[in-house]
Predict the structure.
Amino acid sequence: MEHQKTQVIAIIPARYESNRFRGKPLAAIAGKPMIQHVVERAQQVELLSRVIVATDDNRICDCVQSFGGEYVLTRSDHVSGSDRLAEAAERLGISEHDVVVNIQGDQPLFAAEVVEQVARPLLDDPSLPMSTLIYKIVRPEEINDPNHVKTVFDRNHNALYFSRSPIPFQRNPEEGITPTYYKHLGFYAYRKGFLLTFVALPEGEWERFEKLEQLRALEFGYRIRVVLTEHDSIEVDTPEELLRVEAFLAGRNG
């Protein structure tokens, strides 16, 4: 029997009820809803065999349908994005060994290369359960900002820890050299079988305090490969950031 080729499928979780920005996926950017920007960008990635929006709201379903996108309606009581991702992967009948890439529905400007970068380790190493992206911090204000999650990793680029605190802590700042800080970008790739294992694990102790679900995987002994990318990603968490994205697009098109 011929071994089936591993497929890479993008799932974009999109919630209507957001603490800071209600109806965010439907917010217009340059005349198109934000979710459409994300889907169309993902559809340009050759590696992806499917691009699906996972949502709990019929307004988002209607929007995705209106521009010809594919969606799956999930339960509304999920605690995290990965729970929604797992339910969507189950409903879509994705094979155990296929790779699911989680693309955030609030990153309308992501570079197409990042999808290939985050999925590649799982295609190259069948034993690897998940991977994610990191970016070298260049803006000093991000180091102490708890919204920018920092990470440290081993020589094989497997994550050791993720934290909202600056890690590593520099004990002797008078040394004159400062550590390189890396921030975590919210792109994940999971093997579908592991995604289901992951969401069945109980909440981890470090996850509970940091409010970072990737720590659950580390606490239960699973590897997370971190891939250094040169592409930072603008997340839209507020209406003000929407204007920043519009200005960026206007500048690029003008």
